[in-house]
User: What shape does this take?
Amino acid sequence: MDLHDIALAVGNSGLGEWMRTNVRAMPIVEALHVIAAATVFGTVLVVDLRLLGLPDLKRAVTRISGEMLHFTWAAFGLAVITGVMMFAANANTYYGNTEFRIKLLALAAAGVNMALFHFGAFRSVAQWDSNQVSPRAAKVAAALSILLWVGVIFVARWIGFTKGYDFSVPDNIDLDLTIP
Amino acid sequence: MEQFAQWLQATQLSVAIQSTTWLIPLLQSIHIVMIGVVFVAVLLLVLRVLGVARTDEPPSVVWAHFAPWIKRGVTVLALTGLVLIISEPVREFTALSFWLKMLLLALGIASIAALGSALRRDGAASRPLAVFTLLLWLAVIFLGRAIAYDVEVWGALSFKA
Assistant: This one.
């Protein structure tokens, strides 16, 4: 079973069927996805800007990141769930969509950047937690993080404008079965 | 209103925006990024009022920190939104979601101003108002996305139905 088979299985699942047959499902799920994405980006931005030394300098880095992190993860969870739901509605089209693939790569890059920061510069955070100026590695990670998340949002919105993508799939047609 | 929308959609400016294929996705992306900025700033103000976040800082400091982000963010949202409206006025003006969004947006801005008048003086802002403010902004984001699906969301209530 390769990735394409998995994508097809998701598309042909009950979830995919439900997304295609409920007329209100797509707008509601998309709106939740926007709310989730906005929350992920905004909360990550608060931490990144502190690392870059823009606002919030009186508060320690870990205080701000600790405060924001549960919102970031909760919103990210919602974004994944709603994302899978949207994917299921039109799995085969998304699977073959270049912009969708770029988005996943950008998302993965944002994750790798976060992991590198977490297991790198952040390990010595106790030494610079309350400093106004963060170490260079932390600043680079923060700047990359902002760029990558903005990139994820841009590419994501771009998917909706790419050719061959059909937002309103007729109820009685299962697109996944028509494409080899 | 629909005649106005039709006229606007046929103007050179509107046609120019429509025919620049990358412009609308770019503006929508900037719009979403700014939603993130404004929504999280609103969220943190609300959480401060509720005593959940940033309780180590006086309310006036939290307000002074986030109010400028909300103001600038809303300005960018208004500008990108305006160009998006000019590019597709018929789609926007015939959508019930659009008009509801504008109404709740006005209420959302007014309720932030009301919270701000208490926070600025380090006074106790109303907790129900804070929760209401957050719900208003969530509804504004929801309705923004729902503009593209007016009939699906509102059924017979949609002006497009």
